[in-house]
Design goal:
Largest interface: A-B, 41 and 45 residues
Strand content of chain B: 5-15%
Order of helices and strands of chain B: EEEHHHHHEEHHHHHHEEEHHHH
CATH topology of chain B: Cytochrome-c3 Hydrogenase, chain B
Helix content of chain A: 10-25%
Bound molecules: iron/sulfur cluster
Number of helices of chain B: 15
Radius of gyration of chain B: 21 Å
Order of helices and strands of chain A: HEHEEHEEH
Shape of chain B: globular
Oligomer: heterodimer
CATH topology of the largest domain in chain A: Alpha-Beta Plaits
Radius of gyration of chain A: 24 Å
Distance between the termini of chain B: 49 Å
Number of strands of chain A: 5
Strand order of the largest sheet of chain A: 2-3-5
Distance between the termini of chain A: 54 Å
CATH class of the largest domain in chain A: Alpha Beta
Number of helices of chain A: 4
Number of strands of chain B: 8
Helix content of chain B: 40-55%
CATH architecture of the largest domain in chain A: 2-Layer Sandwich
Structural class of chain A: alpha+beta
Structural class of chain B: alpha+beta
Strand content of chain A: 15-25%
């Protein structure tokens, strides 16, 4: 292919690349700094509220992977007591259909997204692991009642003046590499 | 005197950076010139069509995400259109607009990936991809805000969408649309006149108009060959007849045209989005009243739409139970790669890589 003036296009592109040297960064140093995720995040660990759950098993029926295990026995009156409630998060595809289908708001998606485990057995979430605790909170996916309690998502669309994420050069001395685990 | 030589067979893939997934190309070479090519597919087969037969209609939606994972929203939508056709459901007005908004944002995001990786194959290692990802990250943020995930959205539902838009969404998408034309100009400044790109892609891998129609190609691959065919215009689904936009076409059908048609389509998508944002009703239901275990009447339906890669369709046969009797997926990229041998014969190995990249394949969809 013949060009009349070779190099003009490349020079134009280079000019653009050069301009980018002087703008603020658009990335963060992940394990040290973190962005705030969406309030509706479908995070890794589901949250289950035993006091609200009636053991109806609608969630188990609506799961496309069939990985919610529920076993109940009849307690006082017509109430069902839940003996086993287990979700295998290794098989879960985090589709959120179980949360959508629960008629009593007893199940919610979790907020966490870093859930590497050393053993496969740790992936199975039993009743204790599904309960709410300080670092295991429900997200607002299909549960708008939790929406106000959660921090606002940091959108890269906005710069800092508009209430967006603070993006700056992190000096090398501040970086703590390998301290994440 | 010409020396008669044996063709040399080279396997590209299944694990090769230029194959965009797990895909094997058995290439017959004469020196460096490609004389034959045989695509071998199936490495990513998960049997989604068969899985759907044992799932309810709603439970199949998350599996459609995993077909073409770079345009999950349009896959969800095509499936939902098919089920709605089967059940004769009516979608609320606001939900229709939300569907259009997300289909178009998805198209922008998918085309950015396509163009970025096409240039990556061309040797512009990661730089254009990262320029485009800067905007794609903003799109991912918006998806995350609405449906909680960044790749596998599972947002469309039979009869509407799963949840209403959060309050932050409208200001964010308006800001995005105001900025977007500036960024597209930036990509064009970086790429459109670049001599290396022009020299490598102009006139390379020409797909003629007749061949493109003959094999049933669709999407940007077909339009780059000069065929003005877009289902949004020809057979409007959802509410596309309300929007004013053009269908960009190329003239020669070479790799550059396929790149350029995608860039023009991003601009048209921005246009549709601006109109949709202006027209969307403020309030209203976002999903029709559909039971969780939806039972459509016996029959069959085909729902299809213009996805970012082409015409994606779902053919469903119902026997009146809660699960489809048979689901068939019509994948656009599988049809488009059948044109590969028409395009690559006679070109060098380096050109084979960029011709393959210009088709914009996603193996999740080819192998299903
Ligand atoms: S998120 Fe989806 S896959 Fe996971 S337990 Fe719930 S329904 Fe099943
Ligand atoms: S659907 Fe809700 S109430 Fe019923 S068993 Fe599941 S978590 Fe409990």
């Amino acid at each position: 292919m013949k060009f009349e003036r070779y190099g003009i296009g490349i020079a134009k592109g280079m000019a653009l690349t050069f301009r980018h040297l002087f703008r603020s960064p658009i990335t963060i140093q992940y394990p040290d700094e973190k962005l705030v995720t969406s309030r509706r995040i479908r995070g890794n660990e589901l949250v289950w509220f035993p006091e609200k759950c009636t053991g109806c098993a609608t969630c188990a029926k609506s799961c496309p992977q069939g990985n919610i295990v529920i076993s109940t026995h009849r307690g006082e009156g017509s109430k069902f007591e839940v003996d086993i409630f287990e979700i295998d998060s290794g098989r879960c595809i985090f589709c959120g259909l179980c949360v959508e289908s629960c008629p009593y708001d007893a199940l919610a998606m979790g907020l966490s997204y870093e859930c590497a485990k050393y053993r496969r057995g740790d992936l199975i979430l039993s009743k204790e692991k599904l309960a709410v605790s300080a670092n295991h909170q429900p997200s607002a996916y299909y549960r708008p009642q939790f929406e106000d309690k959660l921090p606002k998502q940091s959108l890269l669309l906005y710069n800092q003046a508009e209430g967006g994420q603070k993006l700056k050069f992190l000096p090398l001395s501040k970086r703590k590499r390998g301290s994440g685990a | 005197m010409p020396i008669k030589t044996e063709p040399f067979y080279l396997n590209i893939g299944p694990q090769h950076p230029s194959t965009h997934g797990v895909f094997r190309l058995r290439v017959a070479l004469d020196g460096e010139v490609v004389v034959g090519v045989e695509p071998i597919i199936g490495y990513l087969h998960r049997g989604i069509e068969k899985l759907a037969e044992t799932r309810t209609y709603t439970q199949t939606i998350p599996f459609t995400d995993r077909l073409d994972y770079l345009s999950s929203m349009t896959n969800n939508l095509a499936y939902c259109l098919a089920v709605e056709k089967l059940g004769g459901l009516k979608v609320p007005e606001r939900a229709e607009y939300i569907r259009v908004i997300f289909s178009e944002i998805m198209r922008i995001s998918s085309h950015m990936m396509a163009v970025g990786f096409f240039l990556n194959d061309l040797g512009a290692m990661m730089t254009p991809v990262l320029y485009m990802w800067r905007e794609r990250e903003k799109i991912m943020d918006m998806f995350e805000m609405v449906c909680g995930q960044r790749l596998l959205y599972n947002y469309m539902r039979i009869g509407g969408v799963s949840q209403n838009l959060p309050d932050d969404f409208m200001p964010a998408v308006k800001k995005f649309l105001a900025e977007m034309p500036k960024y597209i100009d930036e990509y064009d400044q970086l790429l459109a006149q670049n001599e290396i790109l022009l020299a490598r892609s102009k006139g390379v891998g020409i797909l003629s108009k007749d061949t493109a129609i003959g094999i049933g190609a669709s999407g940007p691959v077909l339009r780059a060959s000069g065929v003005k065919w877009d289902i949004r215009k020809m057979d409007p689904y959802s509410i596309y007849e309300r929007f004013d936009f053009e269908v960009p076409t190329g003239d020669t059908g070479d790799c550059y045209d396929r790149y350029w048609v995608r860039m023009l389509e991003i601009r048209q998508s921005v246009r549709i989005l601006e109109q949709a944002i202006a027209q969307i009703p403020e309030k209203g239901a976002v999903c029709a009243d559909v039971p969780q275990f939806f039972r459509p009447p016996r029959g069959e339906a085909y729902g299809y739409l213009e996805g970012p890669k082409g015409n994606i369709g779902f053919y469903i046969v119902s026997d009146g139970s809660i699960a489809p009797y048979r689901l068939h997926i019509y994948p656009p990229t599988l049809i488009n790669i059948t044109a590969l041998s028409d395009m690559v014969i006679g070109w060098k190995v380096a050109d084979l890589i960029i011709i393959f990249g210009s088709i914009d394949v996603v193996l999740g969809e080819i192998d299903r």
